[in-house]
Write a structure and sequence with these properties.
It is built from 7 helices and no strands. The longest helix is centred in the C-terminal third of the chain and has 34 residues. It starts with a helix and ends with a helix. Helix 2 runs parallel beside helix 4, helix 2 runs antiparallel to helix 5 and helix 3 runs antiparallel to helix 7. 82% of the residues lie in helices and 0% in strands. InterPro entries: DUF420 (IPR007352). This is DUF420 domain-containing protein.
């Protein structure tokens, strides 16, 4: 009980710690700064990850939307279950993405230069920005809900933070699917 009370009193600090740690891991993987020599490199798995992550992204969009609908209808437990599922999908996506990018490096766009400049890069930059921005909102929403009884959540800033987190998450996942389509199906 003392641990949950401590966590409840330190949600902003835990949010900052988890956000910084998560984002540091993402940037270290993207910049290929992680020691990955011992990681297995099965080509078929590495090449399947983008397709699996697109499916995970679609599933996450579905669970986020269903979670928003559930809380609007007053179904708190269903909302909680769906948002935890969304976070689990996000974590699975991130682990797979980090593994692939740490081993293979970032993907390069193979389409025409004008598409790369005026479509791909702007979508990618907004996607990355929103993905970075949503991390602390998601952690805060999860930590604030996970450390309080349901009655206290309604009087907290969790509902506002949760709305921001859900919106950022949805747009980021959607733009990620656009990037996937451009990289693997259009070009």
């Amino acid at each position: 009980m003392a641990d949950s009370r401590w966590a409840k009193e330190h949600v902003p600090a835990l949010t900052a710690l988890l956000s910084v740690g998560s984002l540091a891991l993402v940037f270290a993987a993207a910049l290929q700064l992680l020691p990955v020599g011992a990681l297995p490199r099965p080509t078929s798995v590495l090449h399947a990850i983008p397709h699996l992550n697109a499916a995970i992204s679609l599933a996450a969009i579905g669970t986020i939307l269903a979670g928003v609908r559930a809380i609007r209808a007053g179904h708190v437990e269903r909302h909680r279950t769906l948002m935890l599922a969304s976070f689990g999908l996000f974590a699975a996506f991130l682990l797979l993405y980090l593994y692939r990018v740490a081993v293979l490096g970032p993907n390069t766009f193979g389409g025409p230069e004008w598409i790369r400049t005026f479509v791909y890069f702007p979508v990618l930059l907004v996607h990355i920005g929103l993905a970075i921005l949503c991390v602390p909102f998601v952690f805060y929403a999860l930590l604030s809900a996970g450390t309080r009884p349901i009655e206290e959540i309604y009087g907290s800033i969790h509902p506002r933070v949760g709305r921001v987190a859900a919106a950022l998450w949805l747009v980021s996942f959607s733009m990620g699917i656009v990037i996937y389509l451009l990289l693997y199906h259009v070009y």
